[in-house]
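Dear colleagues,

As part of the handover before I leave the project, I'm documenting each prediction I ran so the next person doesn't have to rerun anything. This entry is a single chain, and its sequence is reproduced below.
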Amino acid sequence: MKELSLTEHIKRAKQGDTASFAWLVNRYKSHIVSVAWGILQNREDAEEVAQDAFVKAYMSLRELTHEEAFYQWLVTIVTHLSLNRKKAIARRREEITEMAEEQGASRLAVASEEADRIVTRETVRQALRGLSEEKRTVLILRELQGFSYEEIAKILKLPLGTIKSRIHAARNELKIRLIKEGWHNDM
């Protein structure tokens, strides 16, 4: 039996073929989790958001007009869900901090979940964490996911000039942070 093409799997999934959609999930899961992790910096949250992104994609798959844009469409979904999750986490942390302060606690010690997950390239990851959310997001989409400036502009629904400016600023700031950490490499 002939193996189906990516486009055929997408077309079949749009028609309700769950096996083809499962094939798409298997093909893109690690990429989608990677995008979410880059934004959230937490593996469990990233996996949860990736799962939510696939559910949302499945529910709105019929809205996809160009099959060849499936991956970009999926990254758009996971990016927005990740940014929303990050905001929700920040709100929860603020609420917890406020509650602790109201109860007389001097400070709420919130341990960084990432510190428990030390992995290779920790210096680069720490420098990335130091970037603002906007800079980190565009840098991850460009450098780690390989999207063009135009694709990133579409994903984030921002002007192309804004994307170029943010990427340029993010690269410069990352380079400075890495040099301060003692990491010397041509960037």
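The chain has a mean pLDDT of 81. DSSP finds eight helices and no strands in the chain.

All the best with the project,
I.
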